[in-house]
Automatic annotation (TrEMBL):
Pfam families: DAGK_cat, YegS_C. GO terms for molecular function: ATP binding; ATP-dependent diacylglycerol kinase activity; metal ion binding. GO terms for biological process: phospholipid biosynthetic process. Belongs to the diacylglycerol/lipid kinase family. Gene3D superfamilies: 2.60.200.40, Probable inorganic polyphosphate/atp-NAD kinase, domain 1 (3.40.50.10330). This is Sphingosine kinase. Keywords: ATP-binding, Kinase, Lipid biosynthesis, Lipid metabolism, Magnesium, Metal-binding, Nucleotide-binding, Phospholipid biosynthesis, Phospholipid metabolism, Transferase. One of its GO terms (cellular component) is plasma membrane. Its cofactor is Mg(2+). Residues 1-134 form the DAGKc domain.
Amino acid sequence: MTCEITLFVNPTAGRGRGARAARPAASALRAAGFSVRTVLGENAPDALARARAAVRDGTGALIAVGGDGMAHLALQAVAGTRTPFGLIAVGTGNDLARTLGLPVRDPAAAARLIAEALKDSRLNDIDLGQVGDHWFGTVLASGLDSRVNDRGNRMRWPLGRFKYDLALLAELAAFRPLPYRITLDDGEVREVEATLVAVGNGSSYGGGMRICPGADLTDGLFDVTVVGDCTRTTLLRVFPRVYRGTHVEHPKVSVVRAAKVEIAAPDVTGYADGEPLGPLPLTARCVRAAVSVIGP
């Protein structure tokens, strides 16, 4: 493995934490004997093009510095290659880092862990979800949760996670269950009225909401969580349980496992790792050992 590694930095992550985190992270990596190159970019497409160029040129590792959005962008560059992927999580949600057991909002500690793992060749292959040519690490969301994302992304105020709480309340006021058609890999078709359908490669989204608590990054399967035709009162009662993952015990919630899932519903945008993929229908497949991750 080459001793030159690439930091893939989002300077706006966490209201500037990405740029600030890159400095102690780079210092810790250099102190461990690595040559560090930093990749920025004028915008997301430009940054991704630069990251892919670094992978093609044989960088020893691509290490994303930022939140789940930056991790998602980095996965597009390393998925399906043998370039190791590292993550220094300094964003708002940091769901992929938490799922991987990596330090959160401590860039120096994360960089030291990465340096030690690279020296000891502690790399772990994990699965990724794939929709078309697009990869994701955590959850493909659709339904109420994706509509909350739509509304929250349009809101200029307030900043941070609170705006999504406000967006949830606004969406709940008018939301009605949607007619879903879910096709699983064995050809089984389920037609259900559902509040949301979440396809989990990882277990959580939204900064620790364990929507697919049993998801395993190494089993080659998605956990598909279906929240049925709940009333607003039921949703408000069940919602806090998502953070513990105990919502799956509610009779309106079901979970199935599959390696390939097609979800279809009218007027719904699919989000993966918190990033918009496009309108349903979407077909996701779980790709075994699609990326090699540095660390625990």
